[in-house]
């Protein structure tokens, strides 16, 4: 039941110590305000990093060859070598932890500084990738028109091409439908079967995807006389496999097949995206822990201030408490009264700190959204509702604990001594 007299006593006690009450409340306000701001900022940074990786297969591994750094099996140091088509079957048959294999070869003009792709009077310099359909499962694109490469394209070495939207913009008019039309890549005609746009322009392997052309790997090898050369491999690994272990297995197998020294760390190198993803996730977990430590430390400083102000209140109300005890007030009632005052002060200050912090984060979020840039290092700052409520709950519990010591001090005073107090 709502006790009006009780709340009037609380407000009266706080009014007697206006300045001290304000400063103490501000300490609590500032503590939860900074906690929420830091949590929201950490989340904004995390969202921006993961946004750049959201469509990429984060369980992927990329491997390519470089000149050897050690002589081995009669071959000199500095030997160059290439992966081959038969490596695909060897990897698939000997490493069961591999889920997807996507070989790639760049050619047909590559990233030439001169125009390598022509249609009519229009031309441009674009990256040409020889791929398997599986590549789109690792580094996916959004199909705007037509389709992506398929298995039959590779098996039959079809002269088909899937072009990026910037390639379309350079070679075709705005109202033209590229699908079914032909483009010439280094003198060879290819039929356009699809137009794509990157899902994410912030992260890609092999150049700017919007300015890329995908053709079947087998077609690129035969048409431009690459034989059975593979430029590099992309893999995804199965769910419960260890990325570091699988990465090493892949490199060991390829070293053995191409007569590379087992301890040569330069000849076959790559990029383990799953390992990097785990590092980034661990980094943000560490940031969250640090934020909670700093934030709770700040909150505790405010809570200690609450405890101090309540001790002063108890001291100033010693005679009043003695009268209440003499009139029959139980120790439990005195304790609940002091703790209620402490919780009230803590909750009000914490609530306003929480509201202001959430409001500020929302303002920043709206400003970032209005900016509309895709290359942001800070995105959607905010805190989960449950975390915000957990922070407020911690604050309330802390307020109750802060009032416990002053409450015990209040009930420890004998009524006769309290009545004598001046």
Shape field: elongated
Q: How many strand segments?
A: 14
Helical element count? 13
Write the H/E string, N to C: HHEEHEEEEHEHEHEEEHEEHEHHHHH
User: How many structural domains?
Assistant: 2
Helix content: 40-55%
Describe this structure in words.
The strands form 2 sheets. Strands 1, 3, 4, 5, 6, 7, 8, 9, 10, 11, 13 and 14 form a 12-stranded mixed beta sheet that branches. A two-stranded antiparallel sheet has the order 2-12. The radius of gyration is 34 Å and the shape is elongated. The longest helix has 44 residues, at 273-316. It has 2 domains: 4-54 and 278-420, no CATH class; 108-225, no CATH class. A hairpin with a 2-residue loop joins β4 (117-119) and β5. The protein contains 13 helices and 14 strands. It starts with a helix and ends with a helix. The mean pLDDT is 80. The chain has helices at residues 4-15, 18-51, 86-94, 135-138, 151-155, 165-171, 217-223, 243-257, 273-316, 318-326, 331-371, 385-412, 415-420; strands at residues 60-65, 83-84, 98-106, 117-119, 122-124, 127-131, 141-146, 160-164, 182-185, 188-198, 212-216, 229-230, 232-237, 268-272. By secondary structure, it is of the alpha+beta class.
